[in-house]
Design brief:
alpha/beta, Arc Repressor Mutant, subunit A, D-Maltodextrin-Binding Protein, domain 2, 3 domains, two-stranded antiparallel ribbon, globular, DNA-binding
């Protein structure tokens, strides 16, 4: 098995459709279909169960998935080690983070980076739950959960305050919540339970009993938009919501705190371009501590 075949299999396994896999691989959909068919023919067995809407792994595909992911990690490790001693301030750095952190901290850092080192480019990959930064081949990550992996370099960048917000129109229609009343009678806007389970038990200091969750969304920027449109009460980062004239802080004594971590592959800590990006990020968090 060669990596070029395996990466097509991995993209389809992760994306679930040929179209999404093609977008990730930057090829056309027909190419992905041909490569998967040729790979299955070479193996003499099907890797996917095809339905009109999606591709799901066959028993063989499920058995192969972990091994192919190990291949991916090895290929990425070789690439990182090949550039770990690069002292040139040029080239691309891949950053994985959330859309909210990207808007508030990463983009301002990249403006400064661009002014200092115009030959350094950045690929920004945004998601909510980044459980393994090698999953998408990122060089470093800015995330709200501290990883357990001992082999990674980990540094706390900031501690972010979060609070409850709504519009005045929503409060006129539903009334101001009372502390300790479990937000009964109110519409709540939340991250899905599988992403942030603790919020479904304790929503910024308010214990929830059979909560009326009218919207679940995996993007805080979209949760902020839903809150601004009067759909309900959202738990939002204070550095975003406090500046918004359309939002009202609810129960301001209730606060939730999230540590923000920088996670870096140790193979890359000596690469000059990566050090330059990390330095710009540190300065951005210092200027805007949240």
């Amino acid at each position: 098995m060669n990596w070029d075949d395996a990466r097509f299999f991995l993209a389809v396994a992760r994306c679930g459709t040929l179209r999404k896999a093609a977008n990730e691989l930057h090829v056309d959909q027909a190419t992905v279909g041909r490569r998967i068919a040729a790979f299955e023919e070479a193996l003499g067995s099907k890797l996917f169960i095809r339905t009109p809407k999606a591709f799901s792994l066959s028993p063989l595909g499920e058995e192969m998935l972990a091994d192919v992911m190990n291949m991916e990690n090895s290929v990425q490790a070789i690439g990182r080690k090949a550039t770990s001693g690069d002292d040139s301030l040029r080239g691309n750095v891949r950053i994985a983070t959330t859309d909210t952190l990207a808007e508030a901290f990463v983009i301002p850092a990249l403006k400064q980076l661009r002014e200092r080192y115009p030959s350094i480019t950045v690929t920004l990959l945004t998601a909510v739950n980044i459980s393994d930064i090698s999953y998408r081949g990122a060089d470093l990550a800015i995330r709200g959960a501290r990883p357990d992996a001992d082999e990674l370099i980990i540094k706390r960048m900031a501690t972010i305050e979060m609070g409850l917000y709504a519009t005045q129109d929503y409060l006129d229609r539903h009334g101001m919540p009372t502390q300790g009343d479990h937000l009964r009678g109110h519409d709540l806007l939340m991250f899905p339970r599988e992403l942030v389970p603790r919020h479904w038990n304790d929503f910024c200091g308010e214990a929830l009993l059979d909560p009326n969750v009218v919207l679940q969304c995996n993007s805080q920027l979209l949760l902020r938009s839903a809150t601004r449109n009067g759909l309900g009460i959202g738990l939002l980062s204070a550095f975003l919501a406090d500046k918004d004239p359309d939002l009202v802080r609810i129960l301001p004594e209730n606060k939730d705190w999230v540590d923000i971590w920088l996670v870096l592959h140790p193979d890359l800590q000596r690469a000059a371009r990566v050090r330059a990006v990390v330095s710009a990020l540190e300065e951005s968090f210092t200027r805007n501590p949240g």
